[in-house]
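Async update (no meeting this week)

Hi team, since we skipped the sync, here's where things stand on the single-chain job. The sequence we agreed to prioritize is pasted below, unchanged from the tracker. I ran it this morning and attached the output directly underneath so nobody has to dig for it. Comments welcome in thread, and please keep replies under the output.
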Amino acid sequence: MTKRTCAKKFMAVNGDLICEVKTIDAPFDTTDDMHNHFCHEILIVLDGELNLYTEYSGRVLKRGDIGFIPQYVFHTADILTPGRYDRIVINVNDELLKKASTNKMKLRTCFEPYEDNDTSLHTTHLDEEELDEIKLYCQELQKNIIHPTSGSDILKDAYLKLIMVKITNHFKDNPNMAYPEMLPDIVSKTFEYIDKHLTEEITLSDLEKAIHHNGTYISRCVKKFSGLSIQQYIIAKKIALACKLLKEGLSPSDVCFMAGFNNYSNFSRTFSKHVGQSPKQLQMASRSIK
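Output:
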């Protein structure tokens, strides 16, 4: 799997809601490296086949399959069908889903198991009739986002709710297809160790003892799979944790140490490089959304 280098491992999403119906001519993302978003992501495969990976799990997805990637979770993909890969990608802010939900219909259901220590990549499958229906709704949603007219704000809300209600109900009735786990074991164990010790100093020696492999080999496997060095991945994970804590309302100075940084100056500089804004700017922007 060939990967490209990218400076930012957080990929910005312009707005609270993006819906794109894409063909093979549109790249999967601006990077093949593992990356994450502030928003939840929904990937619906219209044609072709790919391996979709998160830092915890991996699945093969084909036509009609849906993959649900929660906010802050690192992910990447490997397209298996050159010349065939059409899909729908929806990025939606968590607050937007909360506001659109009711007591009887929680539109965050597809993403919530990650919060309960269920680390599998959540998926479901649509039949042909359901897929055509969802594609039509997504095309209308995309049109009202890109070319807004009078009433587009109402239509965006309506189409988002239609899409989310249908795929949420479908996921609850038909969760997680029986595809084999695709994430390499050594990569999985490395990511798991980093996740558990993120706020501590992690060395190759620590990884060697925990995973029982040579440190150079571990580094090579992680780099080949994710496109990131182990150190790049650790920093990116710390930044993702910092984003989450800032959005929860914690002060930047507290977040600095809670995310495993030793001093605020280094934290602020590193955060700004990865996210494109300072910790204080992100926190202010998050407050304006709520």
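Quick observations from my side:
The domain at 185-289 is CATH 1.10.10.60 (Arc Repressor Mutant, subunit A).
The chain has two domains: 17-173, 185-289.
Reply here if anything looks off.
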